[in-house]
User: What shape does this take?
Amino acid sequence: MSTPRYTVPGISLNDAGEVIDQLRMRLHALNDLALTLKHVHWNVVGPHFIAVHTMIDPQVEAVRAMVDETAERIATLGGSPDGTPGTLVSERTWDNYKLGRADALEHLVALDHVYTGIIIDHRKAAAATEESDPVTQDMLIAQLHALEQFHWFIRAHHETAGGALTEAPAKTAAPRSQTKGRKKS
Assistant: This one.
């Protein structure tokens, strides 16, 4: 746990350290998501190219704003946000996004899994900060609102009229998810 030397009034140093640790992983996940979304933006092909290509950029910009907000909250609590690629890769608990140049449906199914993992872990962090820091919890809940909407946009592209989600063709590499395929420590 990171224990800061100072924090905001009304939060113990111990609680602030726990919140900073929660936010550090959220910072990594959001940075990773922004990069992954941009990667998809550049590598999507096929008949639905333009729809997916243009849908992704506003998500990238919104997620980048979440990254900044999260890093600034870490600093406000007395921590030192580390958004370097090396730290992200060494501390993350999920696998790298597997697809390169691929059909829109393949990317959308993979992004469905990415968003699922991020949302699950964001919800856990929101629950973990409820008692110790409702300000951080409020920030995470607001971010969840946008993340869940973006997830809906992604899912709508591979959902049938009956509400079933289609999966990408079998050749698709297994997507990275924060809740499945975690690295062994």
